[in-house]
Specification:
Blueprint lengths: L4 E7 L2 E7 L4 E6 L5 H13 L7 H9 L18 E7 L4 E7 L8 E3 L1 H8 L4 E4 L11 H6 L7 H11 L9 H14 L2 E5 L2 E5 L6 E2 L5 H14 L8 E5 L10 H13 L3 E5 L3 H10 L6 E7 L8 E5 L9 H18 L1
Parallel strand pairs: 3-12, 3-13, 7-11, 11-12
Antiparallel strand pairs: 1-2, 1-4, 4-5, 5-6, 8-9, 9-10, 13-14
Helix pairs in contact: 1-2, 6-7, 8-9
């Protein structure tokens, strides 16, 4: 299991949190500002730190993007002690970092890095941000390196992952089952030419990505990641708001694809505000599928975010998505009865 657990103390919106995950699909829900993306970015940074040339602390500031890449700005603002710590656990190792409001740049105290790399060197991970970026990929990494534009590393990394050369060999039967389904939505394949991305419909001329609907671009990105082997057994997928700008009629298909990837050994983390995606993952799951839901919320009169876990979407006691739909029903009923 790539990522098993995370412990947080005085990190951004969290005073204290201890969250365990399952090896299948982990669905993070909650209102804006509850730290869902923060948790995924920390987990992604830890996964990336399994490579010997990537530091956990440095990767963290590059995916969060605080002013001057200063990790001290990630200390919880209400924390009077001025010290934050993070620990991420896999099955056989853990990696942690500690820093204060006086820590310079990304010079956090990191522990367990050598053992983490040794035990998780084969770990591959990908983070798909909420905003589509491939349509603006040309020279973006170079511009960011020169300081001409500012994008956090999740955007730069996903461009690098999508640019990977596609093998000329024949697709495996397992990979083809995904590609065929996604091509029906995309109505074409992805092409990469001179760092620019195109959609190539069957028997038609290629279309620049920026001329394609954003929802289709997001589905096309998933096609590309599967095609080039980025999402395979043992890999970790983090996807922030996959439902954004996607035609609602494709949400059931998206839920089924995520469940299929989980069955094939991909470890998945999803942050969402969407009722239909959350519910379809519950409706379409098979008995052997592993799906857990995590609700991030502020308890009454409290000033720090806490997390509730349930194995069913409907079993969450604090469910911002479901609460909104219930209120919509009450409002609609009220209009009908007038």
């Amino acid at each position: 299991m790539a990522v098993k657990r995370i412990q947080l103390d005085n990190f951004t919106v969290f005073e204290e949190a201890d969250i365990d995950f399952n090896p299948g699909i982990n669905v993070l829900i909650g209102e804006n500002g509850m730290g869902k993306t923060h948790v995924m970015k920390l987990l992604y940074s830890a996964c990336q730190a399994s490579k010997h040339d990537i530091s956990f602390a440095q990767k963290t500031v590059k995916v969060f993007g605080p002013d001057k890449l200063s990790i001290q700005r990630l200390v919880r603002r209400r924390n009077t002690g001025g010290t934050a710590s993070v620990t991420v656990f896999s099955e056989r190792a853990n990696i942690s970092m500690r820093f204060t409001t006086k820590t310079k740049k990304w010079d956090a105290e990191v522990e367990g890095e050598e053992q983490w790399e040794k035990q998780n060197y084969a770990m591959e991970s990908v983070f798909i941000p909420a905003k589509e970026i491939l349509s603006n990929a040309y020279n973006l990494r170079e511009a960011a390196a020169k300081g001409n534009v500012e994008f956090d590393d999740t955007y730069l990394d996903i461009i690098a992952s999508a640019r990977v050369d596609i093998s000329s060999g024949k697709d495996s039967a397992n990979r083809k089952k995904y590609l065929d389904r996604l091509q029906k939505i995309n109505e074409g394949k992805v092409q990469v030419e001179e760092e620019r991305f195109y959609l190539k419909p069957d028997s038609q001329a290629k279309i620049e990505f920026n001329l394609v609907a954003e929802g289709i671009r997001k589905i096309a990105l998933l096609w590309q990641l599967i095609k080039n082997g980025t999402l395979e057994r043992g890999d970790v997928l983090f996807w922030d708001e996959p439902e954004a700008n996607i035609n609602p009629k494709y949400i059931p298909e998206l839920a089924e694809l995520l469940l299929m990837l989980q069955r094939d050994g991909v470890h998945i983390f999803v942050a969402t505000h969407d009722y239909f995606l959350s519910k379809y993952l519950e409706v379409k799951r098979q008995p052997e599928d592993m799906v857990s839901y995590y609700s991030f919320y502020l308890p009454d009169k409290e000033r720090t975010v806490v997390c509730e876990k349930a194995d069913r979407f409907s079993l969450l006691e604090h469910n911002a998505i479901l609460s909104t739909f219930r209120q919509l029903y009450r409002d609609e009923l009220g209009v009908t009865l007038k």
